[in-house]
Structure formats: structure tokens, C-alpha cells
Amino acid sequence: MSLFLPKLTCKKDIDEVIKGVAEKVVVLRFGRDEDSVCLQLDEILSKTAHDLSNMASIYIVDVDKAPIYTRYFDISYIPSTVFFFNGQHMKVDYGSPDHTKFVGSFKTKQDFMDLIEVIYRGAMRGKMIVQSPIDPQNIPKYDLLYHGI
After folding, report:
1. Which residues are CB-neighbours of 41 under 8 A, at least 6 positions away?
2. Burial of 45 per CB tally in 10 Å (0-12, 13-18, 19+)
3. Does the N-terminal peptide bond of residue 79 adopt cis geometry, omega within 30 degrees of 0?
């Protein structure tokens, strides 16, 4: 569990953050506090939060407390990290079929910091999708699960 990152515990809180944070990337980490991979990701997020404070606001969301967002973003694997800018969902081309979220933990702090910088710069230029700067070897591989199809 990350003691240094703010937690969003309901849909209303998440909505307020997405709509209320201006000119910064909103980072929402969906997962569970007791999951070891989530804890690994939380450590990276908390260590970089101060350095990225001019570009990003980072929040923790428990998938069990926000089921509407969990379903909406099809969060089948945790942790999953979703990005917004000025109320708009930012997509990233990781070289995988899913551009809506980053699944798993970042390998290094620098990978996360580089990604936030690319999202921020792209969003400031009006882009809604950006190319991931992360080495493809550092991006976790997974299969998409489509529920109800």
C-alpha cells in the first residue's frame, strides 16, 4: 500500500479528479493494495511523484471500489494505469492491441517518467494518442480478454 499517493475511493472522487485537474496528466493506477505487482508499481509512482509534480497528478484506485471504471476500461489484469489530460482520456501506442491503458508495472522509474513527459507534451499539442517511448522489451506482454463477446 502506498502511503504517499492519494487514494480515490468512489466514482464521484474519480470523476472530480478527471474533470478538475487542469494542464496536468492525471495518472490513475487501478489495482489492489495487497497485490505484489501493484506494490512494485506504487513504489515507482511514489518515488517519481515529486519529480513529475509539474506535469502529473498520480492517484491510486482500488478496482473493487470503482467497479464502473473497472468495467469501462476492461481492467482484467492489475495493475493497470490509465492517463487523462484536461478531462480527456489519453491513449498510448505501446505496440500492443490495447492503447487505453498500461498493464503491469514499469520496469524502471525512468520508463514511467519518460512516458509521462511524452503524454504531457503530446497533450499540450492537442494529441489524443501518443507513441510510447518505452523500450518494447520493457513492456509486459498479455492477451486481451473480451468479456461478453
Report:
1. 29, 31, 79, 81, 104, 105, 106
2. buried
3. yes
- The mean pLDDT values, 10 residues at a time, for the chain of 149 residues are 81 95 96 92 94 96 93 90 96 87 92 96 95 82 52
Question: Residue 58 corresponds to which cell in the numbers above?
Answer: 498520480
pTM of the model: 0.90
CB atoms within 10 A of CB 37: 16
Domain limits, the chain: 7-131
Alpha-carbon separation of residue 59 from 22, 71, 102, 144 (angstroms): 15, 18, 15, 24
Domain 7-131, CATH number (from 3.40.30.10, 3.40.50.720, 3.40.309.10, 3.40.640.10):
3.40.30.10
Half-sphere exposure of 141 (CA within 13 A, CB side): 2
Number of helices (H) and strands (E), helices first, in the chain?
Answer: 4, 7
CA–CA distance, 17 with 27 (Å, rounded to integer): 10
